[in-house]
Amino acid sequence: xxxxxxxxxxxxxxxxxxxxxxxxxxxxxxxxxxxxxxxxxxxxxxxxxxxxxxxxxxxxxxxxxxxxxxxxxxxxxxxxxxxxxxxxxxxxxxxxxxxxxxxxxxxxxxxxxxxxxxxxxxxxxxxxxxxxxxxxxxxxxxxxxxxxxxxxxxxxxxxxxxxxxxxxxxxxxxxxxxxxxxxxxxxxxxxxxxxxxxxxxxxxxxxxxxxxxxxxxxxxxxxxxxxxxxxxxxxxxxxxxxxxxxxxxxxxxxxxxxxxxxxxxx
Length: 266
Hints:
The structure is a single chain. The protein is an all-alpha fold. It is built from eleven helices and two strands, in the order H-H-H-E-H-H-H-E-H-H-H-H-H. The protein has a two-stranded parallel ribbon. Helix 2 runs antiparallel to helix 5 (about 110-120), helix 3 packs across helix 4 (about 80-105) and helix 10 (about 220-235) crosses helix 11. The model has no long low-confidence stretch (mean pLDDT about 80).
């Protein structure tokens, strides 16, 4: 059994490795940047709290996704405030993450510990090029396409279907505000993630990580995985599963066709 001295020596030896030095550099950087991170989080709170009120008001009264015969209700005195606080805190965390990602992007080239760790792990980082820039620019474009799909088709169809399904057996369609907002966020995130499928597929093929012929042979398994993805992120009904999984399947096939066209033209 190791003594405390042996454990301490072992820990010191680990800290002397490139990986240990990298962790220490990260820790020191976070401690040094703590005031900036605190300001970023506080700014997210200040900006996010009123934005949450505007967003909820728009989703409940102005948006075209809520069925006409449905009422959105608040079931506890602090439910609306809790939603605004969660949204503001999430925005604050996002701003903190943005600051850290920016710091990491600017500090990669200057970090001797990181370069030593990459050499130790035998990892070769590709240089940024035109293809990488185009690929990264496609991420927000596809995310916006996913949001448009969710707002224009997915959410109106699902909410109308769920409302009529409850009304068909004589139930009043009064939905709790937190559940309604959570449903919209989940479906929007599912669409944003699902619409990244063509980019991920195309990059996987073009980078050589997998061949197009292999993906074509695994088509049934990928389709089934898309259905599992839809089942996990949507309500337990066939329409919801279809509306979430179908774009993933279609966009996957589009990526295969696009890669075939690019390969034949090059």
